[in-house]
Specification:
Number of helices: 12
Strand content: 5-15%
Shape: elongated
Largest sheet: 8 strands, mixed
Radius of gyration: 22 Å
CATH topology of the largest domain: Rossmann fold
Number of strands: 11
Number of domains: 2
Helix content: 25-40%
Distance between the termini: 42 Å
Amino acid sequence: MSVRPEKLDLKLQVDLLRACASEDISLDYELKRLGFSYDSLRYRKGEGSGNLFEASQDVTGSLLPASGTVPQTSIPVVSFFSGAGGLDLGFEAAGFHHAAAIEINPLFCDTLRKNRPHWSVLGPPVHSGDIRNKDEYSHLLRQGLGIRAPFEGVFIGGPPCQSFSIAANQRFSKSGENFKRTGFDHVDYGNLLFEFIWYIKEFLPRAFLIENVAGLLSVDDGVQVQKAVEELCAAGYQVQEPKVLNAASFGVPQYRQRVFLLGSRTGECPQYPVREPLLVPCGKVLSLPVDNVECHVTRVHRAKSILRYMEMNYGQREPLGRVDRLDPNEPSKTVIAGGANGGGRSHLHPEVPRTLSVRECARIQTFPDDYIFYGPPARQFTQVGNAVPPLLAYKIATSIYNVTYKHRQ
């Protein structure tokens, strides 16, 4: 059983918060001066009633199978738009051989290289990371990796999704300048789906996986997605209908909807994994100790905010800050790519009236604790929030293997 950090007496906590609020004193500074931390704070009600700590006695680490526990295969996988490596880790755990990761963001490349030094990361500073540079990346795939069509491995990728996102734009009027759900018309992101499909048609991998936000299906009534499916079918692929999967239905302690598109040119189309009957509550991972773990960094909070947060019940939303106190007996709400300095709604820890840390978000996303995110905290949150949960990727990778490759091994 994990040990709770030393908690402040409730009266002392209220007195401290009120003093900091009235004098505009830094709560962060005062807590450290007194030998406490944000983890020493408590809610007024509900604390412990969800049996958060007791519920996780059997949890010792990530919900993702450890690398090496699944028999390894020689089936190569090439990752596009790799981000922090959520899809990559899932395919690695399923036994696939990681051939390359293509990523444009230098910080994300840093995370990939430092966590997996043996991976070939084709991005800054050596390469552009921009798959629109077809001459560069066609040459790298052919000459650097020896990939020829037809390629016997898998291409996987989730093109950047900001222009299709519903959640990122729900606060803004469609006619306002802040509304960015421009879909396929977005100058930078709108056509990256078809850029990825170009590589699939050029190298003809035996199987592919495409991931994006659920809004991809509705941004133009599905016209462009249907065009993408038609292009892939014309290239000889059997393509599953795009399907929205909720990560919570596959063992991830988080409600998170994403659309997936699977295909194969073997005549047998990969199937989506079967939903699991039981949901995993977020308390199962949020009760794990945070002492001496990397990336346990959260926002700096004002005392006035904590005074509001500490009055909330499980599952309640605080209307001013628009943050939710998670219920430890339910999967978490969707982890977002907000940052340590703002940039989106965070979630509050079920038992501590503060927002989740990078590591806690990563645990909800099913990243292992030894996987470290690099860069400023705000960019660490971005990497975690944008990722496909590795456990969900593992379930899909296993399904692809069972249908497309298992009988060939």
